[in-house]
Specification:
Blueprint (H helix, E strand, L loop, with lengths): L26 H4 L1 E6 L4 E7 L4 E5 L13 H4 L4 E6 L15 H14 L5 E6 L1 H12 L4 E7 L16 H13 L4 H6 L3 H12 L6 H12 L2 H12 L1 H11 L8 E6 L6 H7 L5 E6 L6 H4 L1 H20 L3
Parallel strand pairs: 3-4, 3-5, 5-6, 6-7, 7-8
Antiparallel strand pairs: 1-2, 2-4
Helix pairs in contact: 3-4, 7-8
């Protein structure tokens, strides 16, 4: 039986806001970790700031920590909720439920529990998959959606199995991650090799060594964390089937599509235009796959401009 959120313990250790390495100055004064009981599972979120609610969802294989450079500035205008979805970080790690429909439902319940019937959202990578699902499945909940650096299976055209060497370097993990057991057997004990390679190949400029090590340590600390990192991909058959239905109902809310110049670039916007009618595109210069860490100033500028109408509408009603 789950405890009510008011009686849950305070998150501790490296996965929490108090235990993560090299956070921006003053971060601990603004943000705290908390567990939220959704009724089905316990999710970990780092929350702080005041204003309309803004949900941040990182991608594979990262945690809430990916947003650390943006969070203090965003907290001046928004109540920020940076969440570890099921299977990630300090959140519960059930055996199933990694299709984007279930993941989106988790987040809606999370925001209900935190008292936010409406909110804006930013999703990166796999978080972009879930953001699209949430906007499509729960259109009454989201005011604005910003997404970054992903194609969306079932919405985007599938990449060829035999593409260019560059395409293979970026996308081979899709097939590998969908395997049943052998991927876990090959990666366990070699998490630094596998995930380190992913960060090195996709970043336009190297991420800080301590950040990469932090992500690797979180994944290596618990066999269930490694298993869950693959479950998002193992659930792709279900996610693709869901997205083929979602694309028949184009999104009407404003969408901001962010790409890195050295990675997907304008392709992020092209993907979202397959599923939405009101899509803006921003390409961040000299940036690879991890804009919140590689180009936080540029990403903050893009998000601030896009979210300004949402913020002003909230202020006019308080």
């Amino acid at each position: 039986m789950h405890l009510s959120s008011a009686h849950l313990p305070t998150p501790q250790g490296p996965g929490s806001a108090s235990g993560a390495p090299e956070l921006p100055d003053g971060f601990a004064d603004l943000f705290t970790s908390r567990y939220v009981d959704t009724g089905e599972l316990r999710l970990h979120a780092v929350t702080g700031g005041s204003g309309p609610a803004l949900l941040l969802l990182a991608g594979w294989p990262q945690t809430w920590y990916a947003w650390r450079f943006l969070m203090p500035a965003l907290a001046r205008d928004f109540h920020v909720v940076a969440v570890d979805p099921r299977g990630v970080g300090l959140s519960d790690k059930p055996r199933d439920g990694y299709d984007t429909g279930t993941l989106a439902g988790d987040l809606v319940t999370l925001m209900d529990s935190l008292g936010h019937p409406r909110f804006a959202m930013v999703g990166h990578d796999v978080g972009m998959w879930t953001g699209y699902a949430l906007a499509a499945d729960h259109p009454d909940r989201l005011d604005r959606l910003a997404v970054a650096e992903a194609a969306i299976p079932g919405l985007s055209p599938s990449a060829p199995v035999l593409g260019t060497r560059e395409t293979n370097e970026r996308l081979w993990h899709f097939a590998f991650n969908r395997l049943t057991d052998v991927n876990e057997q090959l990666v366990r004990g070699r998490e630094g090799v596998y995930f380190g390679n992913q960060f090195a190949k996709k970043a336009g400029k190297p991420l800080p060594e301590h950040a990469v090590q932090y992500y690797v340590d979180v994944l290596a600390s618990d066999p269930e964390a490694l298993r869950c990192s693959f479950e998002f991909y193992r659930a792709l058959d279900s996610t693709i089937a869901q997205n083929e239905k979602r694309r028949t109902r184009p999104l009407s809310l404003p969408v901001l599509a962010i790409g890195g110049e050295l990675s997907l670039g304008a392709a992020v916007g092209a993907t979202m235009r397959l599923g939405g009618a009101d899509v803006q595109t921003v390409v961040l210069p000299e940036c690879g796959h991890y804009p919140a860490e590689e180009a936080p100033e540029h990403m903050l500028s893009a998000l601030s401009a896009f979210l300004a109408p949402y913020r002003e509408a909230w202020r006019s009603h308080v």
